[in-house]
Amino acid sequence: MDCDVLVVGAGAVGAVAALGLRRQGYRVRVLDAGQPMEAPTGEAIDPRVFALSPASIELLESLDLWPRLAPRAQGYAGMTVWDAVSGSDIRFRAAEFGLDGLGAIVENAALVSAAQAALDDVEFGAALAAVDETTDAVTVTTDDGRPVRARTLLLADGANSPGRQALGIAVSGRGYGGRAIVCHLRSERGHDVTAWQRFLPSGPVALLPLFDGRVSLVWSADDALADRLLALDDAAFSDAVTEATAGRLGALHTPTRRFAFPLRRQTAERFTTRRCVLLGDAAHVVHPLAGQGVNLGFDDLRALLVAMPDPDVGLRAAALRRYERARRADIAQMSQGIDGLDRLFSTANPAVSTVRGFGLHLADVVTPLKRRFAEVALGVKPGFPSASG
Ligand SMILES: Cc1cc2nc3c(=O)[nH]c(=O)nc-3n(C[C@H](O)[C@H](O)[C@H](O)COP(=O)(O)OP(=O)(O)OC[C@H]3O[C@@H](n4cnc5c(N)ncnc54)[C@H](O)[C@@H]3O)c2cc1C
Description:
Structural class: alpha+beta
Bound molecules: flavin-adenine dinucleotide
Radius of gyration: 21 Å
């Protein structure tokens, strides 16, 4: 046996998972098809940023990764969500949920490079090409024909997961038929350490606070609008973002290069086989409106660390069944909650928008409704600030 656990994929979820399992006493090997992630420096901020929930931050703290990220992380204690049609606002403040903060914005490159550096022995340029599972072990063959044998295979190889495909696990879900456009901009007014999200009939647009005072845009748009936005010059694009966010942060300007990624919802029909387990985007992809993609992956990992407390217990098939049970209901609930928000807000129908405006006013004052909204939109478990919440 080459190792206890073979992790395939050293992205955010796989690299942190490998660290977590090593801490619990497993012999872990990590393969990644790509090259090492470079740590971002200076003004060049990775366009892909994560809004980490308090629970995700606590997980990274427990693995001693947080100090490496903190200098480029922007904590935020407020979130304002509002509706373009009814004009209603809902404001979240960390203190009202008994939390010190609602989360922090961190670059994908900062997180992944820190986790890969802490592991120190990721085997890069090694792509999974085939998986062969027996009762007691699993063998991965890389694209250059090398076999690697492990007791358990952890697949964190992203949304298209070659490992999941090799195991023949189907996915259910749908494309939303649009793309999210991401870039960073400067704003006339400061971001006020707040995450801003406005729901337009065409989709949500969010401005997330960055550590250097800029904001990170995530604009979910249908394909026609996305094409138009991507074709604009920088000045016209900045004006479009200013208008889409109703000038809440004043004029936005000086955008970085824009990137677009498809909006989709996808859930694997199983998260485990006898010896294999899916984590992160390999298991589920959600709409980015709530910025929960990576938080759900870290929720998977926390559940896995509970199901696999040590090698004696964790390498038995029963441990993976415990993980499957723990994650199935949670993922379905979160995915439906995010879909529900998308449907509720992505319509200009006046009847719906009146109800929605009323609902937002209500949600701003009625605590249970607001708590539910916070769970879906922020990934916080109000009143339960610990990672076990
Ligand atoms: C442009 C963009 C912007 C995004 N913005 C946000 C956001 O604002 N907020 C948010 O929460 N989420 C966002 N997401 C989604 C977020 O990036 C994912 O949820 C998150 O990265 C999932 O992490 P992961 O580790 O599961 O997968 P990934 O980050 O996809 O990592 C998968 C890893 O597996 C490796 N791999 C793939 N195939 C193989 C193979 N055959 N063999 C070995 N290794 C392999 C890859 O090299 C990669 O390192 C964004 C995604 C994109 C593309």
